[in-house]
């Protein structure tokens, strides 16, 4: 396995790896058709075996002009994507990618990392195993159908537009009530790790 910097020619393999790795997670419908480009400096690494992209990590870095992380006074790095192709999981590829990204981030003066993820137990355990701690959370709420729209008191100002599905962030304090009210609700958790 070779861990190296992402190159534009890797885009199709990067997208395939991310899509396949997210299928069995709470992010199963967060499908990207192309790799994101970052406004700030970024650490973008891939793991490659026999010419196939089998893992990836993207970390965008704070700059004096643009913060992507929430901790004031220190330079942080946000993990936007970390994924391992399902056929290559359980081989410590994610750990090796994280270590390589951390090493490069430290060399660039990054003091801490953050990552937002949903409530898959195995994902939470992975972050905790790698010395991340939970620092914040809110809910991702999916509304589907008239009943759920009525419960949310959500409607369009244009009577000719009929909402069928919606995705929302719930930042209030009544999280358990939201989980009871809607069929699909995920806790979105911010993990943080000092470097």
TrEMBL record:
GO molecular function, one term: acyltransferase activity, transferring groups other than amino-acyl groups
Pfam families: Acetyltransf_7
Keyword Transferase: no
UniProt cross-references to PROSITE patterns, sorted A to Z: GNAT (PS51186)
One term under GO cellular component: ribosome
Sorted UniProt keywords: Ribonucleoprotein, Ribosomal protein
Positions of the N-acetyltransferase domain: 1-160
UniProt cross-references to InterPro entries, sorted A to Z: Acyl_CoA_acyltransferase, GNAT_dom, MshD_Acetyltransferase
UniProt-listed PANTHER family: L-AMINO ACID N-ACETYLTRANSFERASE
Name of the featured protein: Ribosomal protein S18 acetylase RimI
């Amino acid at each position: 396995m070779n861990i190296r910097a992402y190159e534009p020619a890797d885009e199709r393999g990067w997208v395939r790896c991310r899509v396949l790795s997210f299928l069995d997670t709470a992010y199963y419908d967060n499908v990207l058709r192309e790799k994101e480009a970052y406004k700030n400096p970024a650490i973008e690494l891939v793991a490659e075996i026999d010419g196939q992209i089998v893992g990836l990590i993207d970390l965008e870095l704070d700059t004096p002009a643009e913060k992507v992380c929430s901790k004031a006074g220190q330079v942080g790095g946000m993990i936007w994507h970390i994924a391992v192709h399902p056929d290559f999981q359980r081989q410590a590829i994610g750990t090796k990618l994280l270590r390589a990204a951390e090493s490069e981030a430290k060399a660039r003066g990054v003091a801490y990392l953050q990552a937002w993820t949903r409530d898959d137990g195995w994902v939470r355990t992975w972050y905790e195993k790698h010395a991340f701690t939970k620092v914040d959370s809110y809910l991702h709420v999916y509304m589907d159908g008239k009943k759920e729209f009525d419960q949310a008191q959500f409607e369009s100002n244009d009577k000719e537009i009929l909402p069928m599905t919606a995705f929302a962030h719930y930042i209030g304090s009544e999280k358990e009530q939201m989980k009871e009210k809607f069929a699909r609700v995920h806790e979105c958790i911010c993990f943080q790790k000092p470097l």
